[in-house]
Amino acid sequence: MRRGSRFPDDQAEIVFSDVIIEQLEELTEVDRIDVLVEVVRLCEDPGGKHPLSSPLSGWNTLDVLAAEYRVVYKATVTDGVVLVEVLCVGPRSDSEVYDMANAITSTGLLSNEEVVQLWEALGLLDVVIEDVGLEGWDYRPEPAPEGMRRAAVKAGLLDADTASVLSKDELEVAMNSGWGPDGADPDKALLAALERARGSADFSVRKILELRQDDRCGALMVRAKSTCVRRLGHPGPHRSA
Fold this sequence. Notes:
Helix content is 36%, strand content 19%. By secondary structure, the chain is an alpha+beta fold. Strands 1, 2, 3, 4, 5 and 10 form a six-stranded mixed β-sheet that branches. Helix 7 (168-177) packs across helix 8. The mean pLDDT is 88.
């Protein structure tokens, strides 16, 4: 990708090598978030700093951390879906980051078994989704088993439509915590479920439920081998789960 170019619909599947995950773990929390913010921004501005020449033809660079470090990445398009492979991050001085990238690519890393999806990486690095400019509520998780949903509805904790858009662990929390002195408390049950998923009470319940009921993106992700579960027309990185 060259400066000024754009991805289709500003969307991409983003994966990380094991190497850069380890490198990010060694950074301070602030620097780690700064790097991830810039990587996510590739979806709307994929040109980076400049493309590399042989033996790293096809790879590009991205300035991070006040331009003292660079991220090496590559973008390819398959059936209209962009895949961004993020290889490593390192100092610009003495071409250290390029030597590192050469060593990694020569070992054949970034196979399907050795990459981590962006959303998985955020969990591994203990970074809150919203801290890197992503919306945590525009995806639909795998629904809870039908028996659990029916039990929650029968107990008066949730209505059927709401129960259908909650994951198994969210529904478990709702069923455990959604009780008051007079019995079932639907408001308490729903708040408990959504706090379980986000870890914060700073959200709009109506917005979350509306987003989860929207049509799904459905783009086929090459590395994840699954379709995107974010809402149709979402900005930024695709999400497999």
